[in-house]
Design goal:
By secondary structure, this protein is α/β, with parallel strands linked by helices. Helices cover about 55% and strands about 5% of the residues. It contains 28 helices and 10 strands. α1 crosses α8. Pfam families: PEPcase. This is Phosphoenolpyruvate carboxylase.
Length: about 800
């Protein structure tokens, strides 16, 4: 990743930065002049001059004058009314925000002006190769690298998302203002846009008037993905791939994911009773919904871009199979034909003729117009009007009109588009409309509308139809089918979020990332084989990389709970079963009990158990985790972990919930068991971290479980915030260093790889700082393949 925090760029002029500051400052003054009046502006300017003069005197060492000016400033502010003081504070706050936007934009401008970035992928790879790393080793290391960035919300976040978006808009306008070809009229319009944004900011309340819910926080995190990461990730991976190809001769594999993202928003219930099992489930479904929605938008753009007819045999067969499946579906809906079986579909797909090489005269294509709303970088699609009528039109008696019937044999299906135009097939009449009463027509339209739930007008118009549009390109047929499944998946998620029943055939929806990747990779391979690699490596490759990185959930949700809550739950269970009191047992007895139950095959918790609400909430959380599985969830983090029994307790509760859910479903739970991650935060726990990991790995069941279910990786999290509060930053830093050394040594003793999850990010007090320096400061041997970092979104 590029980092230029220590780059020396003295040759970069600050004139543009100064111009931006003056522009935004003057525009803010104009807005305030209009909003608060000239009389208050005089007070504001007088206070500004006093504050700046006092600061200058203090820096110059003229203390007496500085104190005099400061006393006068205090008197001025003390004489203000509360409303005037609030307006003064708001004005200076917005001024500082605008200067911050100008400074950030200048940093971006500076990076663009530098011809060579000292920490770019290209530069780092070049240094490694020159330092003796072989190209094969470099390629293997980069492809196997895995960094996961976990986003979390924090109460210190006070900026409203509304104002953040307005600040982003101002930054975009400053970027547009840098264009050398900007005309006088365009610049005047840009100034007007800036005035509108600043006015809107001034008239917007800076404070949230209600406490954000966990779902609100999760929605904010998803917006970060949509607004920033969605575009940045494929761009970054392209740069990595190009640099890798330059130095090793091989590009980064499309499905390689050196960087991934997770989230705690909606899953972190430690100390937050508002994060319930239902909230976790809803946030996970919402994350899936947004992922599907973003993929639908990308598929729309791809369908317009991939308009070519030439394709590979594999893609041709897939397109034919989709057309035949759709034809049989229409026939079932109209009552004309019996549905094809999947074996028949596969047979017809292999026997189908090649797709046509030209479009028929009536196959209208979408027109493209530029989108100037400043939001999207892709074109919008406008479709021409058409006189096409549905094939499912019936007469007043409910029977099919004879002029719209067609033959039912697959032979005619193939012949009808063998040369790009219908040949000797039954012709469809579009002029005869049949006889309808108004009530029958309304009922028919209602029935048709209900059948189109979840399908946009754009989709219905571009939807490939065998008889009416025989020449639609194969890529559009395949991608159209992908979009249809995505839309059905999105509608299914909406029903789940509304707690409504959904009887949807899993065959018609996407459940896993691999199902979505399959047709996209077929399209990619087809373009490569047909000499269109320049198209394959564009928008399609970006989408494949997005799917591989974000999956079906954008960010996997981690769960976090305090270790004492699990002990309370097991205490309630053992007392209910007359097995004793778990909380009174010593560590060895706890480990003996937990290990014995983990080796068993029966559930521990009876379905009829009656427990306290807090205990029930813990059990419900594990049940939701079993229902969602590792496809939607990441790790289960145990805060305040101090013993090996804290980890085994979570493993037992997780195993028991999965047994119960799989028994009710009649099938295995989705995905694998979640990774269980002990979080060592206090100085005492950090000092005992290595001993806890050694004790865990010495238990045969646990060691075999880690090898079998987690590929021999033990994940451990270390906390920066609480350790700093406990012992101070310097002592905490040293204890964190020693704890990591001890954990790595413990894992090495048992041949287990370690994944370190660093709970750092945001402010310096929470371990924030440049990530690359943080990685370089880790103990030798502790930076293996995986590095997890927790960030607080700004």
């Amino acid at each position: 990743m590029t980092d230029t925090t220590d780059d020396i760029a003295e040759e970069i002029s600050f004139q543009s930065f100064d111009d931006d500051c003056k522009l935004l400052g003057n525009l803010l003054n104009d807005v305030l002049q209009r909003e608060v009046g000239s009389q208050f502006m005089e007070k504001l300017e007088r206070n500004r001059v006093l504050a700046q003069s006092a600061c200058n005197m203090r820096q110059a060492g003229i203390e007496d004058t500085a104190e005099l000016l400061e006393k006068q400033l205090i008197t001025e502010i003390s004489n203000m009314t509360l409303e005037e003081a609030l307006t003064l504070a708001r004005a200076f706050s917005h001024y500082l925000n605008l200067m911050g936007i100008a400074e950030t934009h200048h940093r971006v401008r500076k990076v663009r002006s530098v011809t060579h970035l000292s920490k770019s992928c290209d530069d780092i790879f070049s240094q490694l190769v020159q330092g003796g790393v072989s190209p094969d080793d470099l390629y293997s290391t980069v492809c196997n690298q895995e960094v996961e960035i976990v986003l979390t919300a924090h109460p210190t976040q006070i900026n409203r998302r509304t104002l953040q978006y307005k600040h982003i808009r101002i930054a975009h306008l400053l970027d547009y203002n840098d264009r050398p070809d900007l005309g006088h009229e365009d610049r005047e319009m840009l100034i007007e846009d800036l005035v509108r944004e600043i006015t809107s900011i001034w008239q917007t309340d800076e404070l949230r008037r209600h406490k954000p819910t966990p779902v609100d926080e999760a929605r904010a995190g998803l917006n970060i993905v949509e607004q920033s990461l969605w575009k940045a990730v494929p761009h970054y991976l392209r740069r990595v791939s190009n640099a890798l190809k330059k130095h090793t001769g091989k590009p980064l594999p499309l499905t390689c994911t050196p960087i991934k993202f997770g989230s705690w928003m909606g899953g972190d219930r430690d100390g937050n009773p508002n994060v319930t099992a239902k909230v976790t489930k809803d946030v996970s479904l919402l994350s899936r919904w947004m992922a599907i929605d973003l993929y639908i938008r990308e598929i729309d753009g791809l369908r317009f871009e991939l308009s070519m007819n030439q394709c590979s045999d594999r893609l041709s067969r897939l397109a034919h199979e989709i057309l035949e499946t759709e034809t049989s579906s229409h026939d079932r809906h109209d009552g004309r034909n019996q549905p094809f079986s999947r074996n028949q579909l596969k047979f017809h797909g292999h026997q189908a003729s090649s797709l046509p090489t030209q479009l028929p005269p009536r196959a209208d294509l979408p027109a493209c117009t530029d989108c100037n709303d400043g939001e999207s970088q892709y074109p919008k699609l406008e479709l021409p009007r058409t006189d096409y009528m549905p094939l499912s039109r019936k007469d007043g008696k409910g029977s099919l009109n004879s002029e719209t019937s067609f033959q039912n044999s697959s032979e005619n299906v193939s012949k009808s588009f063998s040369n790009g135009t219908p040949v000797n097939g039954p012709q469809l009449a579009t002029g005869h409309r049949g006889s309808f009463s108004s009530n029958q027509l309304l009922a028919q339209r209602k029935l048709f509308a209900e059948s189109q739930i979840g399908r946009s007008s754009f989709h219905k118009l571009l939807e490939p139809s065998l008889s009416e549009r025989p020449g639609i390109a194969p890529y559009r047929i395949v991608l159209g089918n992908v979009k249809e499944k995505l839309m059905k998946t999105r509608r299914r998620l909406e029903l789940f979020l509304e707690d409504l029943p959904c009887e949807c055939d899993p065959w018609d929806c996407y459940e896993t990332m691999d199902q979505l990747l399959e047709p996209l990779l077929i399209c990619y391979e087809s373009l490569q084989s047909c000499g269109a690699s320049v198209l394959a490596d564009g928008r399609l490759a970006d989408l494949i990389r997005r799917v591989a990185t974000f999956g079906m959930v954008l960010m996997k949700l981690d769960l976090r709970q305090e270790s004492g809550r699990h002990a309370e739950t097991l205490d309630a269970i053992t007392r209910y079963l007359d097995m004793g009191t778990y909380s009174e047992w010593d560590e060895e007895k706890k480990l003996e009990f937990l290990t014995r139950e983990l080796r068993g095959k029966r559930p521990l918790v009876p379905p009829s158990i009656e427990v306290a609400p807090d205990v029930k909430e813990v059990l419900d959380t594990f049940r939701v985790a079993a229902e969602l599985g590792s496809d939607s969830l990441g790790a289960y983090v145990i805060s305040m972990a101090s013993n090996a029994s804290d980890v085994l307790a979570v493993e037992l509760l997780q195993k028991d919930a999965r047994l119960a859910v799989s028994g009710e479903l009649g099938r295995p739970c989705p995905g694998r068991m979640l990774r269980v991650v002990p979080l060592f935060e206090t100085v005492k726990d950090l000092r005992g971290a290595g001993s806890v990991i050694r004790k865990l790995l010495s238990i045969d069941w646990y060691r075999e479980h880690v090898i079998k279910n987690h590929n021999g990786h033990q994940e451990v999290m270390v906390g920066y915030s609480d350790s700093g509060k406990d012992a101070g930053r310097f002592t905490a830093a040293w204890e964190l260093y020693k704890a990591q050394e001890d954990v790595v040594a413990a894992c090495n003793e048992f041949g287990i790889k370690v994944t370190l999850f660093h709970g750092r990010g945001g402010s310096i007090g929470r371990g924030g700082g440049p990530t690359y320096l943080a990685i370089q400061s880790q103990p030798p041997g502790s930076v293996m393949v995986v590095f997890h970092d927790k960030l607080v979104p700004a």
